[in-house]
Amino acid sequence: MQTAEISLLEWQKRYGAEKACAAALAQYRWPDGFYCPKCGHDASYYLTKRKVYQCAKCRHHTSVTAGTLFHSTNLPLVKWFWAIYLVASDKGGISAMRLSKQIDVSWNTAWSMLKKIRAAMAHRDSIYRLFSELVELDDAFVGGKKPGKRGRGAGGKKPVLVAVEKRGKIAGFVSMKAVETISGEEIKKFLSRSILQGQQVRTDAFPAMNVVGEEHKHEKKVTPPEEAATWLPLVHMVIGNMKTFINGTFHGVTHKYLQEYLDEFCYRFNRRFWEPELPFRLLNACANHAPAPC
Q1: 46 within some domain
Q2: Nearest one of 136, 164, 149 to 221, comparing CA atoms
Q3: Regions of the chain short of the pLDDT cut 70
Q4: What is the DSSP letter of 256?
């Protein structure tokens, strides 16, 4: 679905006031007009002092932010809208420190906002399953400050499963999941939530990957390190881009929060051909997402 493009100046003009942001959020929540979340009635009164909608039938009060990503926020919506634009418009991402300076909030607040925005990104991508002429599947290892062995078995690194659609000569959508270990059980879970059943899936010949053949057409090959980029070229390209993204903007992340950054990378990569549309796409994702924990 095509979404409108918008520039920084137009965003500032359109969403520079709290009233305008609230109206936009109401439009995303109720595109066909207000309806009461309690009784479903479609008429209401707006109580200006309390800034809530009162159902004309059951008198239930509903704010424009209730039940959304912005639920119970103490921040002005203007700052939320600016955070969404800044996150969406910079393909390299934005750190909590930089966001805190840009919208004049504390580092903790900026970090919490980014965490919630990434939750909306992850939810939007979780709706889809990879499907194409071929899906490449491999693993990567992220993090770790100690020198030594690389790849599988490396100390202090977090395993990540990576799947990439092959669409002609280019990569389609991607999916990534940080796991505890590269095991058959973890791979089956990843396949179930990321790849449409019955797909042609190409992997190396690592034994744990044999579970791919249970519900997919499995194409595997023993690949020495020097041949890996030839047998699985797209997935290796995506892994390299992911590591550049994490190390470039965020200077590395801890294992605890790695999945959030993988979610952000995937969301951006999957929409890289629609970059000018990302602010509105991300705003829509946030407006329609349930409250997220800090």
Answers
A1: no
A2: 136
A3: 1-2, 144-155, 293-294
A4: G
